[in-house]
Amino acid sequence: MLSSALLYVSGVIFNDYFDIEIDKKERPFRPLASGSISKQRAIQIASVLMMLSAILAFSVSWSSFVTVIFLSCIVLAYDYRLKHSKFFGPLAMGSTRFLNVILGASPTIYLAIQSHFLQPIFAATSMFAFVVIIVLFSRKEISGMQSRKQTIILFSFVYGIVASIAIATLLDLFKMSGLIILIPFTIIMSIIFKQTLSGDSVAIQRGIKNMVISIIILDSIFASGTAGLPYGLLTLLFLLPSVLLSRKFYVT
Fold it and tell me: Which side of the chain, N or C, has fewer Cβ within a 10 Å radius?
């Protein structure tokens, strides 16, 4: 968890480092753009955090270390250039979430390969798909959707993820307790779909924020489906700080 958190923070700093010229024009209040933190200090902090993330992962297992190395490469590639690509940007962001799930499973990945190999792969793939949808949706947060059809197509994939989880559960890949969390997740996605169907940019921005926060609920579904409902409910507790922080910070 600490390795993942440190890697996330380093990625945020690298993102601002590579975007400093854009931020000077569009977001001059940000730390780097305003000059309150130098570019040299920022790159030092980000590099140290990324190295600490790798060291922590190495202290757990070789598989965790290798996963963090791959994850770090994708984070840097995304921050430096891939985020500007219409095709590779969403795939890169989705890949970071995919590997983050694999990082969580990496300490016991050899055991997982022998017994429940499909569980972490399925969970990671679902997360990949959901995040790609969010990124594609976020491309319209300023201009708004040109037609209702675009929103319908994107959310049809969201419902596809929901259906695949339900089918996988019925096929005994996951415990039935995961469906208890899947129901409210589906309801929330339906509410977001209805709110953003107008194509209004403000509604889309609000929808993106709620979808990002809903990643926690998706995590909870898989925690319940693998470890049991108590772990899924514990995972849901992270919604509280996330909702509170989203009132202070711009979530996109």
Answer: N
